[in-house]
Write a structure and sequence with these properties.
Number of domains: 2
Structural class: alpha/beta
Order of helices and strands: EHEHHEHEHEHEHHEHEHH
Strand order of the largest sheet: 2-1-3-4
Radius of gyration: 16 Å
Strand content: 15-25%
Number of helices: 11
């Protein structure tokens, strides 16, 4: 697929999503990011709502790169106000540009449905209040959350620098036996390197925020062929 562009709308302290997305697209697909303004590097309800208010201005700027698809690349920022908030964010982007757009939370919901997962476990780096909002968002969209663990981190760079072996260990501990699969949340939480490893260990699909976002972008770009290396979602 030649000459395509992916546009990312991401939080100012996000240092993971661009890197992981580049691994899931060939060099012919370029990645271009604009930061959505907010006044703190911490993930809080207020900072996420602040990003929501600034989404349209960021989308206007990103549209100047003429991407083929835009991703609102913040999981918590696209579920923080509950069921339907992901669609509200998409509508805000649509007000300023006709470029197709998807949010990470929307991509996650679509990915879970594509894999046929109804009962999921949730691992997230967020503080308790935000993690519980994510649980309610998933449940409100028809999924049962059987295992859940939030790490209580609000500092964005602390999330990005969390050791990968520790994330893998926590994922193993969080995955409930009765669950159909595991979802690891947050576009600033490194996961790409361990998805397939975890799937082999757990014997069930693993979905992550960046993986789901890239998969949804691929769908919009029109590619449906299996891609190896990024878990069952891409392999189907």
């Amino acid at each position: 697929m030649k000459g395509k562009r992916i546009g990312l709308l991401i939080p100012p302290p996000n240092v993971v999503m661009e890197t992981e997305c580049r691994k899931m697209f060939p060099p012919s697909v370029s990645i271009h990011a604009t930061r959505i303004s907010r006044s703190t590097d911490h993930v809080t309800v207020d900072s996420l709502l602040e990003m929501g208010r600034n989404t349209e201005e960021a989308a206007r700027l990103l549209a100047m790169t003429r991407p083929d698809v835009m991703i609102f690349g913040c999981t918590s920022g696209s579920f923080i106000m509950g069921v339907g908030w992901d669609q509200e964010i998409r509508e805000r982007i649509a007000r300023v540009t006709p470029i197709p757009a998807i949010t990470t939370s929307t991509a996650v919901l679509e990915g879970l449905r594509a894999l046929g997962l109804k009962k999921v476990s949730l691992l997230a780096p967020y503080t308790e209040d935000i993690t519980l909002r994510e649980k309610k968002f998933l449940e409100g969209n028809g999924f049962q959350v059987l295992g859940i663990k939030g790490l209580g981190i609000s500092a964005s760079l602390e999330i990005a620098e969390f050791p990968l072996p520790q994330i893998q260990k926590l994922a193993q501990e969080t995955a409930a036996k009765e669950a159909d699969g595991l979802f690891i949340s947050c576009t600033n939480f490194p996961t790409i390197e361990i998805i397939e490893r975890l799937e082999k260990e757990l014997g069930k699909p693993v979905l992550t925020s960046n993986q789901a976002s890239a998969w949804a972008a691929w769908k919009i770009l029109g590619r449906s062929e299996p891609i190896k290396g990024f878990g069952e979602l891409f392999a189907r």
